[in-house]
């Protein structure tokens, strides 16, 4: 595949600050310096996209939620000249999409639309950012919408992993770190990433950024937070505790078994190798988990693995299945066997090569068709921006990785099974004493997983 | 069918840019199939074969879930018959309300294999008995999983059961019926419904029409016309005077919700084939008005969704769910929704509204053409009723041929008082 590249327009050392301008009650989130404005290869589906990136100064749960709700309110809640309904109509009529995303300590707004309407989309975006009409009701609704789903209710593996990812990325809630009731404005971003070849679009993007307010130089944050913000403070460790989180639901006939581990890799080749092996274990209908847990044991509809990239050479590895409550210990053992077998190199090379091709195609397709996914890859590779030629090393790794080497190194690429955190949600008997020996936390009803993750972490750190 | 043949014979160049026009070409060498089409798109690197069985969950006999179990058995049987190596491909099959769709996708050179995989779906499922028996367990697992993960599915089912006063046809009894699923019923369902005259084939992607004609003739040409299964649910209509309200409490909800199901009978119509443009523009206008009243002008509704189902006999079903912000009472939300519907057309629909709705629908279709999965859904949507598939470019033409007056009359019929069923669901710990 082609290795995606890009071009840098300008780069300056950027610091960001967070302050309350005297004339305006609203909080302004903006860089005080120049924006890094760069261009990645154009999309291939007839659309263009612009992503604006603001760093999150102090990424607690509350702060992240406030900033996401703040930017969501601004792009959908109306301006001084357009109601929220009119904005929604504009988006529908033009086929424009606005998506808010957070990765690590970066808040990202991506606006995308068909090439032919993208120049006017930038005018629309300019109005949203420069003339937002703050509504406390609208902000409250956005905040409520973003409030985390309790995965013990939905029992979707993806919801469980969202809670775990939040634990890994963000400190607990910190309501005291004021957010001005959500009256937040977004000024000059620290990075702007464009996916368009249109010169008019490039010119308008440049003007848009220049028109956005920069932060003044007066620091409002306490010195400790200020230093933390500049040095990428927040969560420094990317680890999960071992042990078992157990939400017992005696009325349920099913049990969700989910294993998850947070891994940091030496290099992108190791990351890709681990991704490949994880896919081999459970990513599709040819996988080991599907073949054995579903087709042979007939124990689950959706046995699966997930490899969730969380940052530069960081990922969560997860295996999961929802099974008949009384059968969960047996399936647990089988998933463990499958994992350990693959980790020990019991892998069919031809099948792994198929997985490699499949992953390569998925990365290629996503890069050229999904601007939100692509900008996440860029941010993961270059969290602090980049100078000179832009490349995303992970994409280059596809050309150098061989299935044979991955199998040979499987034991180093995948963590020992004992390192996994185990999450059990549903009915059936409690885990055995042996399983509980690494740590155990019974999760109360309507309680976030974070409660138990803290309990287990604190126990490990005693 | 004359109208259909007319617009299928045209070429459509409505769009510019990468979302190219897509023509729908009927295939004549289709054996006994209900219909077969090719949609050539020579600028893509893939080809997709959709085999659409024109029966789905609404056609379930007792127990509910039989069509779903049949889908699993047919899919695995077809793959086991044609494929020999694992990890070659994933199976994509889904049971919808009125159809069961099998999608086989690949690169253009694989087209013959993809057609053979599709053809094998029509053969009586042949699976080891133990495997087939245990597939019932898998279907049960899947159904429970989906139920847990989507609270709306459960509430919608209650609303529809109350609306139609039945647990069959357009309503179902999926969860309660799970223990009664049987292979015998599934094989019988296959025998009655997976018959050539109840199947539409749609080949799309990088394939020349002549090649499609040749291969479809080769692989499906030996199928014989067959008796078409009856669809008794099409005659089942609720009492127009019904105004059902059910209250419930559950710890399965994340927040309080109001669920509505409303049935609209277009009494002077017997088919929806010539109402497609009216349906899409009309519902778009009404969606905009509902969105404005329920969401943009009222911050007490956290989120909402609106679904429309237009049956082949022109019966229309509207479902709406509202998720409520904390502090907004269920009774007040119930009143809000009733009043919004009653007053929806107090202000006459303007030409501008209709024009914008038409444009928004065309833009939506263009965006669908940019995404392979969205395009497949687009092709199967109308085809699931046994009508010819509609491509985004054909869709744009249909919309341009729809008059404003048709849209206004459609909307006026929708808001007339008719059978409704509300569920007021309170979240409890």
- The CATH first-level class of the largest domain in chain B comes to Alpha Beta
The CATH architecture name of the largest domain in chain A reads 2-Layer Sandwich
Query: What is the top-level CATH class of the largest domain in chain A?
Result: Alpha Beta
Distance between the termini of chain B: 55 Å
Report the portion of residues of chain B in β strands.
15-25%
The N- to C-terminal Cα distance of chain A equals 49 Å
Strand proportion of chain A, as a percent range, falls in 15-25%
The name CATH uses for the topology of the largest domain in chain A is: Cytochrome Bc1 Complex, Chain A, domain 1
Most extensive interface, chain pair and sizes: A-B, 50 and 44 residues
What does this structure look like?
The complex is a heterodimer of chains A (462) and B (429). Chain A is of the alpha+beta class. Chain A contains 18 helices and 16 strands. Chain A folds into 2 domains: 5-230, 2-Layer Sandwich (Cytochrome Bc1 Complex, Chain A, domain 1), CATH 3.30.830; 243-460, Metalloenzyme, LuxS/M16 peptidase-like (Cytochrome Bc1 Complex, Chain A, domain 1, 2-Layer Sandwich). The longest helix of chain A has 21 residues, at 349-369. Chain A is globular and about 65 Å long. By secondary structure, chain B is an alpha+beta fold. Chain B is built from 14 helices and 11 strands. Chain B has helices at 2-8, 66-82, 111-120, 129-149, 151-164, 174-177, 183-193, 209-220, 276-296, 330-342, 351-369, 372-383, 392-400, 404-415; strands spanning 25-26, 35-40, 47-53, 92-95, 100-106, 199-205, 243-250, 257-265, 301-310, 315-324, 420-427. In chain B, strand 1 and strand 2 form a beta hairpin. The longest helix of chain B has 21 residues, at 129-149. Classes of the chains: A alpha+beta (462), B alpha+beta (429). Chains A and B meet through helix 2, helix 4, helix 10, strand 13 and helix 12 of A and helix 4, helix 9 and helix 11 of B.
């Amino acid at each position: 595949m082609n290795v995606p590249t890009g071009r840098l327009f300008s780069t300056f050392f950027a610091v960001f600050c967070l302050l309350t301008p005297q004339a305006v009650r609203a909080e302004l989130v903006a860089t005080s310096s120049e924006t890094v404005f760069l261009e990645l290869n154009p999309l291939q589906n007839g659309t263009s996209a612009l992503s604006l990136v603001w760093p999150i100064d102090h990424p607690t749960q509350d702060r992240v939620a406030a900033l996401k709700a703040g930017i969501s309110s601004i792009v959908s809640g109306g301006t001084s000249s357009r109601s929220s309904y009119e904005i929604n109509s504009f988006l529908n009529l033009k086929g424009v999409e606005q998506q808010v995303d957070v990765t690590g300590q970066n808040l990202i707004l991506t606006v995308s639309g068909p090439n032919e309407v993208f120049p006017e989309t930038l005018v629309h975006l300019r109005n949203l950012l420069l003339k937002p009409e703050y509504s406390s009701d609208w902000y409250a609704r956005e905040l409520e919408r973003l409030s985390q789903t309790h995965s013990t209710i939905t029992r979707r593996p993806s919801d469980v992993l969202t809670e775990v990812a939040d634990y890994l990325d963000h400190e607990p809630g910190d309501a005291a770190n004021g957010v001005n009731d959500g009256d937040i404005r977004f000024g000059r971003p620290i990075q702007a990433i464009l996916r368009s070849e249109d010169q008019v679009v490039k010119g308008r993007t440049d003007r848009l950024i220049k028109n956005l307010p920069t932060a003044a130089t007066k620091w409002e944050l306490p010195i400790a937070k200020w230093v933390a913000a500049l040095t990428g403070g927040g969560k420094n460790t990317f680890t999960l505790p071992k042990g078992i989180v157990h939400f017992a639901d005696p009325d349920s006939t099913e049990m969700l078994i989910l294993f998850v581990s947070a891994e940091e890799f030496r290099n992108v080749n190791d990351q890709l190798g681990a991704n490949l092996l994880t896919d081999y274990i459970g990513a599709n209908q040819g996988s080991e988990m599907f073949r054995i847990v579903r087709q042979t044991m007939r124990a689950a509809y959706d046995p699966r693995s997930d490899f969730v990239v969380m940052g530069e050479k960081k990922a969560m590895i997860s295996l999961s299945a929802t099974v008949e409550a009384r059968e969960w210990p047996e399936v647990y053992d089988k998933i463990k066997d499958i994992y350990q077998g693959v980790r020990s190199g019991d892998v069919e090379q031809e099948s792994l090569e198929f997985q490699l091709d499949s992953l390569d195609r998925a990365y290629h397709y996503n890069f050229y068709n999904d601007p939100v996914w692509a900008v996440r890859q860029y941010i993961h590779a270059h969290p602090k921006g980049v100078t000179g030629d832009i490349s995303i090393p992970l994409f280059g790794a596809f050309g150098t990785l061989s299935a044979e080497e991955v199998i040979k190194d499987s034991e180093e690429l995948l963590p020992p099974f004992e390192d996994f955190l185990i999450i059990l949600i549903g009915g059936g008997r409690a885990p055995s004493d042996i399983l509980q020996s690494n740590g155990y936390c019974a999760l109360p009803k309507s309680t976030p997983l974070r409660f138990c993750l803290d309990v287990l972490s604190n126990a490990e750190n005693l | 069918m004359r109208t259909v043949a007319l617009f299928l014979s045209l070429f459509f160049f409505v769009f510019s840019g990468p979302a190219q026009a897509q023509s729908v070409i009927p295939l004549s060498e289709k054996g006994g199939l209900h219909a077969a089409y090719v949609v050539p798109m020579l600028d893509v690197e893939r080809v997709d074969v959709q085999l659409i069985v024109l029966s789905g969950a609404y056609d379930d006999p007792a127990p509910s879930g039989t069509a779903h179990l049949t889908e699993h058995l047919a899919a695995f049987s077809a793959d086991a018959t044609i494929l020999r190596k694992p990890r070659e491909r994933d199976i994509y099959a889904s049971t919808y309300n009125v159809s069961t769709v099998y999608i086989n996708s690949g690169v253009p050179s694989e087209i013959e294999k993809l057609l053979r995989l599709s053809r094998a779906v029509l053969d009586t499922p042949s699976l080891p008995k133990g495997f087939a028996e245990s597939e019932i367990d898998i279907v049960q697992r899947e159904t429970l999983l989906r139920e847990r993960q989507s609270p709306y599915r459960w509430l919608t089912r209650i609303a529809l059961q109350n609306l139609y006063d039945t647990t069959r046809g357009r309503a179902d009894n999926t969860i309660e019926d799970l223990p009664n699923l049987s292979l015998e019923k599934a094989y019988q369902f296959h025998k009655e419904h997976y018959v050539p005259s109840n199947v539409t084939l749609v080949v799309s992607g990088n394939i020349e029409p002549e090649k499609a004609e040749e291969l479809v003739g080769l692989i499906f040409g030996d199928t014989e016309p067959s008796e078409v299964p009856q669809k008794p649910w099409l005659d089942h209509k609720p009492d127009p005077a019904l105004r059902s309200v059910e209250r419930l409490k559950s710890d399965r909800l994340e927040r309080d919700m109001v669920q509505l199901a409303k049935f609209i009978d277009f009494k002077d119509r017997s088919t929806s084939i010539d109402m497609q443009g009216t349906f899409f523009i009309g519902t778009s206008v009404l969606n905009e008005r509902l969105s404005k009243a329920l969401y943009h002008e009222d911050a007490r509704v956290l989120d909402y969704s609106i679904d429309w189902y237009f049956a082949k006999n022109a019966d229309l079903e509207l479902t709406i769910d509202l998720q409520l912000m904390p502090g907004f009472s269920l009774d007040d939300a119930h009143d809000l929704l009733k009043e919004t519907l009653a007053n929806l057309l107090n202000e006459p629909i303007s030409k501008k509204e209709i024009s914008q709705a038409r444009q928004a629908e065309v833009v939506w279709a263009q965006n669908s053409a940019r995404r392979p999965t969205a395009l497949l859904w687009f092709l199967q949507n109308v085809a699931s009723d046994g009508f010819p598939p509609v491509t985004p470019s054909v869709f744009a033409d249909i919309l341009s041929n729809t008059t404003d007056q048709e849209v206004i009359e459609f909307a006026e019929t929708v808001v007339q008082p008719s059978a409704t069923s509300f569920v007021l669901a309170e979240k409890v710990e």
